[in-house]
Specification:
By secondary structure, the protein is an alpha+beta fold. The protein has one domain. It contains 2 helices and 6 strands. Strands 2-1-5-6 form a 4-stranded antiparallel beta sheet, with helices on one face. A hairpin with a 4-residue loop joins strand 1 and strand 2. The chain is globular, with a radius of gyration of 13 Å.
Length: about 90
């Protein structure tokens, strides 16, 4: 399966809005099992954000989505409902 033909985005959702972070091809890692991994922290950094910003925004979920021509496929979703930021 060719990674370059796939387009991925992170969707950040709060109670009031949704924001999409585009993911570049060089950020996509295909592991030995053929699953895709895209480190959230590196994508956030590229968009001048970090995990602390997500907590400040009161994010409900962050979802990794594969964007097709006419549809979207949810790869995984992280709920921030019970997460805490440890400093």
């Amino acid at each position: 399966m060719q990674i370059k033909h796939k387009k991925f985005i992170y969707v950040i959702e709060t109670e009031t809005e949704s924001k999409e972070l585009c993911i570049e091809d060089d950020e996509v890692i295909e592991n030995a099992d053929g699953e895709f991994d895209i480190p959230l922290d590196s994508v956030l950094s590229k968009h001048q954000m970090d995990l602390e910003d997500l907590f400040k925004m009161k994010v409900a979920t962050v979802s990794l989505v594969e964007q097709g021509c006419s549809d979207r496929k949810l790869i995984r979703s992280i709920s921030f409902e019970n997460l805490r930021l440890n400093k």
